[in-house]
Amino acid sequence: MPRCGKRSRPVSNVVLNVEPDPVSTEVLDGIAIVAIANPPVNALSHAVRAGLDTALACIEQDDTIRAVVIYGRDRTFIAGADIREFGKPPQAPLLPDVINRIEACDKPVVAALHGTALGGGLEVAMGAHYRIAVPSARFGLPEVTLGILPGAGGTQRLPRLTGVRVALDLITSGRQVDAEEGLRMGLIDRIAAPTDPVENAEPSAAARAAGLDFARDLIAADARPRRTRDIDLADGSDETSGVFAEFRAKMASKSRGQLAPQNCISAVEGAVNLPFAEGLSNERILFQELMNSDQRGALIHAFFAEREVAKLPEIKGVSARELARLGVIGGGTMGAGIAVAALLAGLDVTLIERDAGAVSRAQASVARILQGSVKRGKLSEGAYNTLMAGSFRASSDYGSLSAADMVIEAVFESMDVKKDVFTRLDAICKPGTVLATNTSYLDINQIAAMTARPEHVIGLHFFSPAHVMRLLEVVVAEKTAPEVTATGFALAKRLKKIAVRAGVCDGFIGNRILSHYRKAVDGAVLAGASPFAVDRALVEFGLAMGPFAVSDLAGLDIGWATRKRLAPTRDPRETYAAFADRLCEAGHFGRKTGMGFYIYDADGTRPNDEVLDHVARDRMAKGMTPREISDQDIVDRYMAAMVNEAARVVEEGIALRPLDVDVTLLNGYGFPRWRGGPMHYADTVGLDKILADIERFAREDDFLWQPAPLLKRLVAEGKTFADLNAA
Ligand code: 3HC
Ligand code: NAI
């Protein structure tokens, strides 16, 4: 029996259930208002499910209650199941049962939505009989992004509300829709009238009020419960025929290697082909299969790791500096992209170039990128004009940076040029300006030493294209002050990017690891694989692009310049793969010159067979006889090299924890998210297997393949990278 609170008067404003937290019910004019309060995002933890179940049981027994409103306190309705409970033994009541109970209620139930109603939260709303949302509310079923599917009836109820095609789109993409779109697609019934924001008001007050209004209307109209499960879904009809095959093919190519999108489609197919209750059971089976998969573990690791990276002890409680006016030096590939990212985030941007010609080229680049946003409907023409005429200016006069709060330098990758820029900035910028460099590899301590204020100097390493890529490495130099680091993180948040703290070394976290695994794939080519086989095997493994195709895209001249820079200090024991240099010497820099490892022309993209001759000559010069290298061997080399160097990066403190490496590789280097990042992957396959691979490859090249001390120690102690994350 549920413990329902006693009420002295039948229709009064009292709390019904005895334990108010995290679900409480008050009754007002015969309407039970069920509030969920489980900060920060009202996730459906066991206590919330139990609270909802009890509240419904009490409401069912109370004849004086004529309608029900469910809403979420504070910033949002319910953001979904409690992800922290995943992988633990499930505790009753289970969410599908709670939602079935809501749907079965014999009084009309209204879900009043604000913030983000996501996953299990939206499933609760679809179990309610009516849905109203405040104008700013957003909805979605993001489960697929966590490697699962909506497992509390979402795959059965959404197609009944919106039709199969829309449901498949939302469920397989995980995308969010706003209130207008939700209304159009039949997901919600009403959008509440906009209300003036009241200072200090609870953000959920408008949702509660809207829910109450809707419930009063329902009572006045003597409306009955309207259950989503009862909506007829035409089976195998014209509308649905072909749509499942279409989505299967689309997801097989878009989400190559992933289980969840395919199971999502099967679950929705069940909604069409099976009676509701059987469809629910089918959904449950498909859900459990995903719940038990490594992919679910990997994607949830990625979710939490992306939140952990911002939790730095050194900036806890440290305030970021105010950031309104940004200077950008250099308007090439990176400078223009950084300027656009900042403009779109509402910053005022002054871009400095070398001379009038470069100024107008930079101006044109910024305009072109922003026009791209206009074409894609992300920016209005009016907003474009305001940005270009009001918030953005380009000049060759460094003096116009005197009032900047932060300056980001993105000039050529040359220490001399950078030193000159920082000397000028030191002379011009006001005290307190954050002076940042976007260098990919150079020593930021040396750059900082050119100024009288090294504590204000930091690395902000963006990725190309800077207005698109989510990663920002915040490189903390020897003397960087904590508030400058905090300002770097604050900038990332403002630009909607993910910041990872890195220490100073050649290439920081990402590029340092990249140079190492690039050497390993070059080694695989010298040993016998073709660059095309390497790319194919790694794309099959899940990378967005193979490493040789990536080099072509970035420009082969970039790696060539780095190799030349490092040549004087290169260890003579290193096996230096020279085949890429031969391409560069012939003027083939990849995509931008129409030829690199691949040929790019009007006929499309295809392997450049000339490369094989360069490789053959390189092997011959080194006295190497090529042999068969399997796809698995290619993947093993790639992963072992990545993990080995990453272990050094962690041990040296360049990355704080293994999870920082994972977030870097996931967001800046196209590592497959559903594998969780290299360190998570290494834990999954076993660190002993990675170490054994390294020792195996060391028989071929014992200079390249030296096991990292941290890796050896973890294997000896039977520990994992996850243990270090938790420490
Ligand atoms: N469960 C547990 N914790 C959650 C959570 C969830 N569903 N969603 C967010 N959190 C936590 C975060 O880890 C973070 O914790 P921290 O402060 O300790 O780091 C805190 O809530 C705030 O989250 P964000 O930093 O992400 O806050 P934002 O305001 O930027 O974003 C959000 C809020 C849009 C709700 C975002 O957190 C989000 O997308 N959450 C995940 C939503 C989701 O995937 N829901 C589906 C869950 S699976 C499900 O429902 C299965 C069902 O079908 C059976
Ligand atoms: P780029 O060659 O496209 O642009 C550099 C720009 O700087 C040119 O437009 C040049 O005119 C300008 N410039 C040179 N000296 C200047 C000075 N003294 N004052 C003002 N402007 C000056 O180079 P890109 O690719 O944009 O790289 C810039 C920096 O960003 C480099 O340090 C590079 O290592 C780094 N980086 C590059 C990435 C990429 O993918 N291209 C990724 C991340 C970082």
What is this entry, summarized?
The chain has 727 residues and is of the alpha/beta class.
What does this entry look like structurally?
This protein is 47% helix and 12% strand. The protein is built from 29 helices and 19 strands. The protein binds 3-hydroxybutanoyl-coenzyme A (3HC) and 1,4-dihydronicotinamide adenine dinucleotide.
SSE blueprint:
Elements: E1 23-28, E2 31-36, H1 46-61, E3 67-72, H2 95-104, E4 109-113, E5 116-118, H3 120-127, E6 130-133, E7 138-140, H4 154-162, H5 164-173, E8 176-178, H6 179-184, E9 190-191, H7 205-220, H8 243-254, H9 260-273, H10 276-291, H11 294-308, E10 325-329, H12 333-344, E11 348-352, H13 356-375, H14 381-391, E12 392-395, E13 406-409, H15 415-428, E14 434-437, H16 444-448, E15 457-462, E16 471-476, H17 482-494, E17 498-503, H18 510-527, H19 531-541, H20 547-554, H21 556-566, H22 579-585, E18 598-601, E19 604-607, H23 610-621, H24 631-651, H25 658-668, H26 678-685, H27 687-698, H28 709-717, H29 721-726
Parallel strand pairs: 2-3, 3-4, 4-6, 5-7, 6-9, 10-11, 10-13, 11-12, 13-14, 14-15, 16-17
Antiparallel strand pairs: 1-2, 7-8, 15-16, 18-19
Helix pairs in contact: 1-2, 2-3, 3-4, 4-5, 4-9, 5-8, 5-9, 8-9, 9-10, 11-25, 12-13, 18-24, 19-24, 22-23, 24-27, 26-27
